[in-house]
Structure formats: structure tokens, C-alpha cells
């Protein structure tokens, strides 16, 4: 399973990219605002230079023609982007046009299997079921990931599933087990996945034993 970083903070991406575990990045208007990004093009350009997989950038318009216009503008930058389109009827009209133009799309704000299925039919490159936000309201977010993975496999659908709205490492592991192609993970969650207290204790013990050996020579 691939891992995308769910952030627009370039310093975080720059810090974690060298670990070799970050394949792509997803942004949204809230994340860009949080990162204080005013020069969106400059930020997306820099992020694209740090990862291999597409960087998701979201449209603001609500009508298909507005979304298509924004998507064409983003794709005229000639960067490796996927245009994030909200899961609405208008959104899918836009996806249908953009997919025929070869523009990659990531249909966002997916909360049900039926929404994911329609987005894939419209030609989405990626679909993003929001696991955490569903769990927050006592629904099972992972169930949507699991169902979509099952259905896409049966029909040989190429749309890739991004498990989004990830809250903790178990969400990542369970998304992998449920068949998500990608999990988009906030920096804090990814950083916590590197660590285990027994690893720290083990390193400390090896180092102190090694030091003892040197001193006994
Ligand atoms: C990514 O594509 C989504 O925009 C993001 O994962 C949403 O996460 P949140 O539910 O924590 O805002």
C-alpha cells in the first residue's frame, strides 16, 4: 500500500520524504490555510518535486463548469497533480469531462460505498473515502474502504482507493487490510508509526552493552 502525506506544510514533507515512505501528498483548502500557503502554485510545484505520485489540489467551485475551469488551470501548470473534486452530481459531471481529457482526479468527501462506485464509474483516478469523519459519527469508515476494494476487484476497476481522514496508526493498518491502495496520513500519525517503546529500549540496551564491551578491553 502506498502512503501519501496529508499536509500542505512543505517543511514536514521535506523532512519525511527522505525516509522513502512518502509516495504522494494530498492537500485541501483547510490544509493550505493551516500551512499559510498564499502562493499555491509555488507550494504545489515544490511539493511535486519532493514526491513521485500526484499531489492532490482541490477545486473551490461548486458547479461543473467552474470545477472544470479550475482543473484545467491547475493542469496547465504541467505538474504531477490530481484535481480533487467533491462528491456531488456536479462534481461527477466535471470528473467525466476531465477524465476524457486525461486529467487525473481525486473524488473527495466520499462517505458511502455507493458514492465511491459512482465516482469510479465517472472516471475518477482516485476516490477518497473519509474513514475518520465516518467513525466520528459512529459509522464504520473502514467498511466503505473494504466494500469499494471488493467491488473494484470484482469488476477490474482501475480507480485507486485513498483511505482519507486518518486519525491514528490503526486506521492505516486496517485500511491496508481492507484493500486500500493508498492511505493519506497526517504528519503526526506517520511520525508515530516509526516509533515503538521496545525499539527505544532495545537500542539503549545494545548501546550500553557495546559501551561495556569497549570499556572492558
Ligand atoms: C484528504 O484527502 C482529506 O482532505 C483529509 O484526509 C481530511 O481529513 P480530516 O477529516 O482530518 O479533515
Structure description:
This protein is α/β, with parallel strands linked by helices. It has one domain: Aldolase class I (TIM Barrel, Alpha-Beta Barrel). Helices cover 54% and strands 17% of the residues. It is built from eleven helices and eight strands. Strands 1-2-3-4-5-6-7-8 form an eight-stranded parallel beta barrel, surrounded by seven helices. Helix 6 (113-122) links the parallel strand 5 and strand 6. Helix 4 (64-76) runs parallel beside helix 5 (89-100) and helix 8 (141-155) packs parallel to helix 9 (169-178). The longest helix has 19 residues, at 197-215. The mean pLDDT is 97. Erythose-4-phosphate binds next to helix 7.
Helix-strand layout with pairing:
Elements: E1 2-6, H1 10-16, E2 24-26, H2 29-34, H3 40-50, E3 55-58, H4 64-76, E4 81-86, H5 89-100, E5 105-110, H6 113-122, E6 126-129, H7 131-136, H8 141-155, E7 160-163, H9 169-178, E8 182-185, H10 187-194, H11 197-215
Parallel strand pairs: 1-2, 1-8, 2-3, 3-4, 4-5, 5-6, 6-7, 7-8
Helix pairs in contact: 4-5, 8-9
The structure holds erythose-4-phosphate.
Erythose-4-phosphate is lined by residues 6, 26, 28, 108, 128, 130, 132-133, 164-165, 184.
Amino acid at each position: 500500500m502506498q502512503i501519501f502525506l496529508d499536509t500542505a506544510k512543505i517543511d514536514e514533507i521535506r523532512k519525511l520524504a527522505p525516509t522513502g515512505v512518502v509516495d504522494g501528498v494530498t492537500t485541501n483548502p483547510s490544509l493550505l490555510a493551516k500551512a499559510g500557503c498564499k502562493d499555491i502554485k509555488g507550494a504545489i510545484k515544490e511539493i511535486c518535486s519532493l514526491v513521485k505520485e500526484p499531489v492532490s489540489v482541490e477545486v473551490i467551485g461548486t458547479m461543473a463548469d467552474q470545477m472544470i475551469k479550475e482543473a484545467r488551470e491547475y493542469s496547465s501548470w504541467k505538474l504531477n497533480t490530481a484535481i480533487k473534486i467533491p462528491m456531488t452530481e456536479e462534481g461527477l459531471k466535471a470528473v467525466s469531462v476531465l477524465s476524457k481529457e486525461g486529467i487525473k482526479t481525486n473524488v473527495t468527501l466520499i462517505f458511502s460505498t455507493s458514492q465511491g462506485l459512482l465516482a469510479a464509474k465517472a472516471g475518477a483516478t482516485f476516490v477518497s473515502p473519509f474513514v475518520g469523519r465516518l467513525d466520528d459519527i459512529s459509522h464504520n469508515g473502514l467498511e466503505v474502504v473494504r466494500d469499494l476494494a471488493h467491488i473494484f476487484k470484482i469488476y477490474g476497476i482501475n480507480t485507486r482507493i485513498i483511505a482519507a481522514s486518518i486519525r491514528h496508526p490503526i486506521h492505516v493498518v486496517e485500511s491496508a487490510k481492507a484493500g486500500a491502495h493508498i492511505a493519506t496520513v497526517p504528519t503526526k500519525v506517520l511520525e508515530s508509526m516509526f516509533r515503538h517503546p521496545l525499539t527505544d529500549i532495545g537500542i539503549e540496551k545494545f548501546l550500553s552493552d557495546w559501551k561495556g564491551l569497549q570499556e572492558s578491553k
